Amino acid sequence: MKKFLLISFLLVSSFLSSKELDLKSSINMALQNNLEISAEENALKSSQWGKVNALTNFLPQVAFNSTTVHIDDDTFDASQEVIQIPVLDGTTGMPNGNYIPFSGGAMGGGIYQTLIQNKLTISQPIFNGGKVILAYQMAKKATELSNLKLADKVNDIVYRVAFTHFGILKLNELKGVYEAKVSADEAHLAVAINQYNAGIVMQNEVLRWRVELSKAKIELDEIENSITIALDNWRNLLGAETDIFPSEIDITKFDEKILEISELGNMADYTEKFLSEVTQNNPNIKCLAISTAIVQKQYTMTKGEFLPSLNLQYSYQLENDDKFDFKGDDNWNIAAVVSMPIFTSGKNYSNAKRAKYEVKKAKVNAQATEDSIILAAKNSLMMMITSAKKVHNSKISLDLVEENFKVINKMYEQGMVKGDDLLDAETMRTASKLELVSAYYDFILANYELRKWTNN
Questions:
Q1: CATH numeric code, 20-62+129-310+346-454
Q2: How many Å separate Cα 257 from the centre of its chain?
Q3: 348 near 306, Cβ under 8 Å?
Q4: Residues in the chain with pLDDT values less than 70
Q5: pLDDT of residue 104
Q6: Per DSSP, what are the bridge partners of residue 101?
């Protein structure tokens, strides 16, 4: 009794500790914990600061420079020595006997053994071939690109979570089908044993159902193993512990949408409208457009290498003496620096030609990728429409197969038909159930895949 109570307590505790998550909660958890999302968020912040950095190129730059130069004693003493320079006679050009004392250290206000210079420099770019403006525009585009990449990554994670989430639910549904098949095969085996004991059927009938039951159990084991693997992948995607499970859903709630899709009259208009949404909203297509625009601006920037540049610079020397007190000799100057490339050995020309073909390459790649995206999106739409029709047809087929199975099963219990007939009916029923479950989840997953293409 105590052992029974202990086992019951452990089972109840395990049930209470486990947690079921619906799709929305699963997505929220994945978005909070996913490292790929975190990486894209950091990339976005980096591009935002890059935009700020590009903006600073329009502003003046202020720099303070301080220089200290010390001359060794021997050199300084030599510079202070006084030499006698003879005075030349103005008529004969010969020394007249007089001398003038001269010292190099006395020239230009003297030489300091320790010279301290403090200078303030302000520079302002005026025109540099448009590079400053283009650099800011490119940084702005890079920020837009990072935003789209983050949105695309979020979109991708949402779809991956939905795909894995519904994949597990699909496997659970399939598990239920195989469990029902195992139960049915066990019941058929019991009937076959009773009929064999009564001398109604031969022993091969019992063996046939034993083999069928063994196959059903193996298939059930394979499904359970697939569920375990899928759960591990789902939890890893969510960054979650091992005590959570996806909550079940009522797949029949999609019946209205399935009926609407399966009865579509004008497929061309529906397809055109969907592909138009893909073209307008798909993050990858938008990323291609922005990447092409960035390459185009790089090409424009290379054209600026043919243009002159103009920069202003103001320098104010605060002191030039042997004391760090900002009280020495001061002076200032302002300069306008104009530079015009005359001959660069073809460097600017080759850069422009290279950038031109990079633009062409980017446009061709963008168009090719966009065509691939549109084709894949159209394929997903066709899969959703096909799966909707398949659900509709599978439901009708299953109703007929179930009715057929009931009739054959009743006749088998009465010994009116052989086991082969019942086995065929059972196989058809199991296949129809599996087909219906697969069709439902194929529709659900295709529907989420369409949302991925339209960033919805």
A1: 1.20.1600.10
A2: 31
A3: yes
A4: 1-18, 102-110
A5: 61
A6: 84
Coil vs helix vs strand at 65: strand
Would you say how long the chain is, in residues?
456
The owner of tokens 């197969």 is 401
CA–CA distances in Å: residue 328 to residues 19, 63, 88, 324 = 78, 20, 38, 9
Tell me the helices (H) and strands (E) count for the chain, helix number first. 11, 8
Quote the CA–CA distance of 431 and 124 in Å, as a whole number. Answer: 78
Report DSSP letters for 8-55, one per residue. HHHHHHHHHH-EEE-HHHHHHHHHHH-HHHHHHHHHHHHHHHHHHHHH
Q: Which residues are 116's β-sheet partners?
A: 68, 321
Q: How far apart are CA 223 and CA 243, in angstroms?
A: 20
pLDDT of residue 4: 37
| pLDDT at residue 260, rounded to an integer | 85
Dihedral, 283, 285, 289, 291 alpha carbons, nearest 10? 70
Q: Do strands 95-103 and 114-128 pair parallel, antiparallel, or not at all (unpaired)?
A: unpaired
Other Cβ atoms closer than 10 A to 360: 11
CA gap 236, 201 in Å, rounded: 53
E-only strand ranges, 201-308:
244-246
Q: Kind of pairing, strands 244-246 and 19-21?
A: parallel
Q: Which residues, other chains included, contact 396 with Cβ-Cβ below 8 Å and sequence gap of 6+?
A: none
Note whether 337 and 311 are within 8 A (CB): yes
pTM here is 0.72
Q: What is the pLDDT of residue 145?
A: 93
Distance CA 206, CA 113 (A): 115
CA 450 remoteness from chain centre: 18
